[in-house]
């Protein structure tokens, strides 16, 4: 935890606040409160933004704040009280932008893996148990395994990069976001989804 806080999982921040209230520094607790506040503001802004969208490219626009912030962050003078709120706000916007994301009609969460992990285990249980709709549960198990595995791989790679290139490891996020934005935009254009994939 670079900022001694989480930017996207506010339940974790609340638990850290409660668990560390006496032993943690007031500065770290303030960062966690800022994260909760600015993530919430970003999420609410994301709701407003989503309600006023005009075309399918709004999802790309929802990624821009986080993409720009992660791109310029290594060049800024280090200041947690400025960086963390901006990243938390951007994460809130992105979280709302991609709410209701699905893989083959099955919902998944983009920022955390707990719900995805639970769904993966549930699907695996039904596959092992031999439930009637084996094809459906196998497909779910594979899809959620990819999501959970990708999350874990991203966390490990980020941690390793952090040891060698420190804050510049955040450019992995920038690169991922740019890839998603380009791919999504090209698919919207190719499939003619500009007005329908809202």
TrEMBL record:
UniProt-recorded name of the protein: DUF1275 domain-containing protein
Keyword tags: Membrane, Transmembrane, Transmembrane helix
Organism: Streptococcus thermophilus
TM stretches of this protein: 29-49, 56-76, 141-160, 166-185
Domain of life where this protein originates: Bacteria
Record's keyword annotation contains Transmembrane: yes
């Amino acid at each position: 935890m670079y900022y001694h806080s989480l930017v996207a999982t506010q339940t974790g921040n609340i638990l850290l606040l409660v668990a560390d209230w006496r032993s943690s520094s007031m500065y770290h607790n303030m960062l966690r409160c800022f994260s909760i506040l600015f993530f919430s503001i970003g999420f609410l802004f994301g709701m407003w933004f989503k309600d006023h969208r005009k075309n399918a490219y709004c999802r790309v626009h929802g990624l821009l704040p986080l993409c720009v912030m992660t791109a310029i962050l290594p060049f800024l003078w280090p200041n947690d009280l400025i960086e963390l709120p901006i990243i938390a706000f951007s994460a809130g916007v992105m979280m709302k932008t991609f709410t209701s994301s699905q893989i083959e009609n099955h919902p998944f969460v983009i920022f955390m893996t707990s719900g995805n992990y639970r769904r993966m285990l549930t699907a695996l249980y039904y596959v092992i148990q031999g439930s009637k709709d084996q094809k459906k549960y196998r497909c779910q198990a594979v899809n959620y395994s990819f999501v959970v595995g990708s999350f874990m791989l991203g966390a490990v790679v980020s941690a390793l990069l952090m040891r060698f290139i420190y804050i510049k490891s955040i450019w992995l996020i920038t690169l991922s976001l740019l890839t998603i934005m380009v791919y999504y935009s090209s698919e919207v254009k190719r499939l003619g989804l500009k007005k329908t994939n809202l």
